[in-house]
Design a protein that fits this description.
With 294 residues, this protein is of the alpha/beta class. Helices cover 46% and strands 19% of the residues. The strands form 3 sheets. The protein has an 8-stranded parallel sheet. Strands 6-7 form a two-stranded antiparallel sheet. Strands 10-11 form a two-stranded antiparallel sheet.
Length: 294
Amino acid sequence: MGTVLDRLAEKKLLVSDGAWGTMLQSRGLSGDDCPEEWNVSHPADVRAIASAYVQAGAEMILTNTFGGSRVKLDKKHLGEKVVEFNRAAAALSLEAAGKALVAGSVGPTGEFLQPLGLMSEEQMQAVFSEQIEAILSAGVRAICVETMMALEEAACAIKSAKALDATVDVLATMTFEKGAQGYRTMMGVSPAQAVAGLIEAGADVVGSNCGNGIEGMVEVAAEFRQHTDRPILIHANAGVPQLIGGKTVFRQTPEDFAASVDALLDAGATIVGGCCGTTPDHIRAIRRVVDARR
């Protein structure tokens, strides 16, 4: 049992952090910038985001490493900076965490496994291993594999983390959209299939992030709970995105967001935080609900 499972055994419920991209953009990150490069060029800004979430009541924060794999960094011609960027991000979140837990964020590569794509499982696992090893080398004891669409890619990331250190807690979330057949990822994975596949790969915590506002996540969490007694992590968006002035905007207020937290917990969620559009104010509102629940 690792740090996240230990803390859950003690507290039963945990409050996680909110959006990182939203906060980085508020500090000047442009669409052409590499968020992970900010770990070395703007460390004070990155550390301040982590600190803001801790001060808002987050009991677990992530690292600014969502796109920190070599495959993603190569697109910015920064592939040789994998270790530097990921290790720096982990150190910054650890510095800000205080008593909060830190989980290293690992997002999708954007590539497909064979036969749909060109990468073999061995190649994909090697990509994830390089990134995850750098995060763990800074002292992080949990990995959050997030925003996954393909079960096979998620499994590669989970297996890579467990192969590096079997005692590290691995949290794994997939992104669903509601269609005619119910909730499915872009690659057609249902919540039931996600639960089975993520756990088989070695995930300690399963769940969903992005893709839905908190109201939709209540349904997703309920589906997950039907198929597992493992802890469930939910990071919902701040409502449905709107295009305003050429920019994607999430307009759900912290109060409206928090109004659905009780329902989310009733549905089975045990770790609750935010994704796109959420801020420290959203996390502060979640924390009030969770504290009252406790």
